[in-house]
Amino acid sequence: MNEAVVIGGGIAGITAALDIANHGIHVHLVEREPTIGGHMAMLDKTFPTNDCSMCILSPKMVEVERHPNITLHTLTEVTGVAGTAGDFTVSVKRYPRYIRAADCTGCEDCVEVCPVEVYNRFDAGIGVRKAIYKAHPQVVPNLVVRDREHCIDCGLCYDVCGKQAVLRNDEDTEEEFTIKAGTIIVATGYDVFDARKKTPYKYLSIPDVITSLEFERIINASGPTGGKIKRISDGRTPKEIVFIQCVGSRDLPLGCPSCSAVCCMYAIKNAMLIREKYPDTRVSILYMDIRAYGKGYQEYYDRAETLGVRFIRGMPGDIYSQDGTVIVQVENTETKEVLRINADLVVLSVGIRPTGTASSLAERLGITCDESGFFESADEKCGPVQTLRPGIFIAGTCKEPMDIPDSVMEGGAAAMQAVMTLMRE
User: Fold this and answer.
1) Which CA distances in Å does 404 have to 11, 41, 48, 140?
2) Percent of the chain with pLDDT over 90
3) pLDDT band of 1, cuts 50, 70, 90
4) DSSP 424
5) Which of 167, 152, 157 is nearest to 110 (CA)?
6) Where residue 380 falls among pLDDT bands split at 50, 70, 90?
7) Which residues are bridge partners to 52 per DSSP?
8) What is the number of other CB atoms lying within 10 angstroms of the CB of residue 423?
């Protein structure tokens, strides 16, 4: 069976799908969200070059949609896998979009007239979206999706759509079907740590304590604030910003013993962006250890220091709100000095965790997870992308925390293993 299935449409899955398709093999790219792109689509810049994230990702997303050897299945998830390498039968379920894809042009006229505003998961809760929406302007496929849960069925979207592409509830239903494939790649990505579990940091109790992903959406020009950094509580531009590292990483009591690999660098990146945009704003990074392990990463750290970013080796035990500011008290373990910082905004650098569906998907695929909950490789030395089930490969952050370049590399490695599997079979 000269076809492949890639589960997950983030940067690792996109890379794997394109590499396999360019070898003349048909690929089914299965994504449970309405659009491909994954977490990378939420970011503003990438380290260590500070290139625009969507400038890198968007052309690849469009290439996936236009590639003759790729069939894109969005709002779809895998429900089961049967067979062996070379002859898998993949059972999938497609959830309704309540939009006729062949007629929708993505014009967003329906979005403009929709009166309902709800929590926007793509903006990490900082912004809102309509009950009929596109997650962001560069979605692929370029289609809106109607959120049946929050739709009040007012009928305005039906009336305004000249193509009559908006479907009623009984006109679109779940669909189950199977795909025959010779090999499968799993690239389902990650979830971020739930900062509420780190109770001393008062996330959601103090409005101006936010997570790094929320900050990414604030600083992004296409985000809810248009790229302007503002306090959540009163909308003022913060004059003192503090980043707290290792929230949900290297924390045994919370069951997160490992390093998340990216938190130090994305905090440094965001700190540099703040200093460049707002030179009068003081930025401090509180850390246990700075792990700048990649090519050019130490130089990136040095550049942040020259821009005036303050690095303090120490972790606060508790933070609290007083007179409109967030009080952060920390001991600098290098100088033994106890500091009391009156912060306008505190950013928690949350770590990378396995997705909530990782264990159930592993059971459906017949593969295993390690003790931390990520998908497990059969042999880290001989085949880091190979699972215990022949013909099924894993790539990217579903396997372990890693940055974007490493995710791209693993997507390519899994693709080559899949191609060789098909050639042997």
Assistant:
1) 7, 12, 11, 20
2) 90
3) low
4) H
5) 157
6) low
7) 45
8) 11
The span from the CA of 416 to the CA of 384, in Å, is: 13
In the chain, the domains with their CATH numbers are: 3-95+174-190+354-424 (3.50.50.60), 109-171 (no CATH), 193-351 (3.50.50.60)
Read off the pLDDT band of 329 (50, 70, 90). Answer: very high
Strand order in the sheet with 325-332: 319-322, 325-332, 337-343
Question: What does the pLDDT read at residue 293?
Answer: 86
Question: Which of 239, 231, 308, 314 is closest to 276 using CA atoms?
Answer: 308
In degrees and rounded to multiples of 5, residue 53 shows phi and psi of -60, -50
Number of residues assigned to the chain = 425
Residue 287, number of CB atoms within 10 A of its CB = 21
Q: pLDDT value at position 272?
A: 97
Q: What is the pLDDT of residue 62?
A: 97
Q: How far apart are CA 118 and CA 151, in angstroms?
A: 10
In angstroms, the CA 74 to CA 26 distance is 17
Using DSSP's 3-state secondary structure scheme, residue 25 falls into coil
Query: Distance (Å, rounded) from C-alpha 393 to C-alpha 200?
Result: 39
Strands 345-350, 240-247: pairing is: parallel
Torsion sign, CA atoms 49, 51, 54, 60:
negative
Distance separating alpha carbons of residues 363 and 368, to the nearest angstrom: 7
What's the CA gap between 287 and 30, in Å, rounded?
38
Q: Which residues of 155-165 are buried (b: 16+ CB within 10 A; e: fewer)?
A: ebbeeebeeeb
- What pLDDT, in 10s, does the model give residues 263-294? 999 999 999 999 999 999 999 999 999 999 88
pLDDT at 382 over 70: no
Return the closest-CA partner of residue 195 out of 146, 248, 159.
248
Average pLDDT over the chain, rounded to an integer: 94
Query: Which residue type does 42 have?
Result: M
Longest Cα–Cα distance of the chain, Å, equals: 68
CA angle in degrees (0–180, nearest 5) for 56-57-61? 140
Helix then strand count (H, E) for the chain reads 9, 24
The reported pTM is 0.95
**What is the pLDDT averaged over residues 1-25?**
95
Spatial separation of the C-alpha atoms in residues 193 and 196, rounded to whole Å: 9
Other beta carbons less than 10 A from residue 368's beta carbon: 15
